[in-house]
Amino acid sequence: MTDAPTPTADQLAAKRRDQVKGALGRYRFMANFTGVFLLILCAELIYKYVIAAIWDLPAPEWLWYIGAVHGWGYVIYLLFTLDLGMKVRWPAPRFLLTLLAGTIPFASFYFEKKNSDEIREQFDL
Q: Which domain of life is it from (predicted)?
């Protein structure tokens, strides 16, 4: 019976780098998606509760979908952020701040850029 060859340190590092690269791509897409839909949601809320209320305009029913799309996108963003954070071994405070970035307008763009630059440098991507 033969034993399977043990992977070398370079092979393990290359495999981890590939895993991080894939997770980073998914995280970046969802961070930007969540950020864009959060801004659209903010505009929708301003229209619905300020502009439409002042001028007594009807709010179209389809506006409900904006919040739903952002909400489901945020859930996927949470999963992809957890995946990336576990692969790069983030400490808990960084995890939490990055997870919350999808709830604050413009924060997801800032954290996406900051995290992407640091991870690219750390893993030579």
A: Bacteria
CA distance 37 to 75: 13
Is 10 domain-assigned?
A: no
Q: What letter represents residue 6's amino acid?
A: T
Instruction: Please give the full DSSP string across 42-55, using - where no structure is assigned.
Output: HHHHHIIIIIHHHT
pTM for the model: 0.85
Instruction: Measure Cα distances from 2 to 5, 15, 100 in Å.
Output: 9, 24, 50
Question: How many domains in the chain?
Answer: 1
Burial grade of 39 (CB within 10 A; 0-12, 13-18, 19 or more) = middle
Q: Could you give the angle at the alpha carbon of 38 between the alpha carbons of 35 and 39, nearest 5°?
A: 90
The model's pLDDT over 7-56, given as tens digits with 9 standing for 90+, comes to: 777 777 788 888 999 999 999 999 999 999 999 999 999 988 898 888 88
Residue 6 located in a structural domain: no
Token pair belonging to 43: 């505009």
